Amino acid sequence: MGDVCDARWSQAWPVLKRAPPIYKPCDCPFRRSWHKNYFLLRTLDAQKKTLDDTVIAYQKALELTQNRYAAGVAAKADVVLAQTQLKSPRHRQLTSGSCVRNLNTPSHC
Fold first, then answer.
1. What pTM was estimated for this model as a whole?
2. Which residue of 55, 65, 73, 78 has the fewest C-beta atoms within 10 A of its own C-beta?
């Protein structure tokens, strides 16, 4: 994640330099760190929303598959697949909070 954040920061920095004076960042390390953390936090917020939406969609898919299985239209393997699909983003949803707590060391995310 660190490489991705650095790449995004290097793309955002020229845009910030062209911003109106009130938003124009200085070259001081504190401001640069603040801007970098701001963009990292916005990225993490967007990732969390995507992950939350994915979990909701997979929960609905699991419910639909279970209903189809109960009606005899779907196989048990379909239910197991839907349960497995739901476990992966749910696990990431539970462990993604560690990234927010460690904004300055996002490489473990």
1. 0.56
2. 73
